[in-house]
Known about the structure:
Blueprint: E1 2-7, E2 10-14, E3 19-23, E4 32-35, E5 38-42, E6 47-48, E7 57-77, E8 82-101, H1 151-155
Antiparallel strand pairs: 1-2, 1-5, 3-8, 4-7, 5-6, 7-8
Amino acid sequence: MFAVIKTGGRQYRVVPDDVLEIGKIAGEVGTIVQLGEVLLLGGEQPVLGAPTVAGASVAAEVLQHKRGPKVIAFKKRRRKNSRRKRGYRDEITVLRVTEILTDNKQPTVGPRPKKEKPVAAAPAEGEDAAAPKKTAKKKAPARKPAAKTTAKAAAKPRAKPDAKKPDAKKAPAKKAAAKGKTEKK
């Protein structure tokens, strides 16, 4: 079964266990809220509202209140040195649909309990408490031996590290003026 609801000027198609972000509504995190504007109930026998379905509502759990992405409205009038930068972030409520209700029924499903982090059980005093566990660490595989040098490389003498490097080459001399060009009188 699904329903089409209207909230905050928008319409949403929802089924139980859907998570949706809508405009901010009143309600504390973890509470159940009822959304009463149901436009359509779907299923085997769809029911259309005129404008809403009488007695139908959607129950949802408030998961979180947050702010949406930053939206920047920048206006510029060219050649007038007129610029306006204005931004905002929408206030959003995150809901999880718990059930779709008909005939003015009240929600039967409460909020889900929060998941607790599992705590590691402490070992008994006599067992393994005295001896800490040793973890086997794997060593990195041995590296391959360096490649053997070839006969040419071995025969080539190497320069002494103490030898001075030759001076840098001087820049070539400037060219003389072009010959053969004479001035006309």
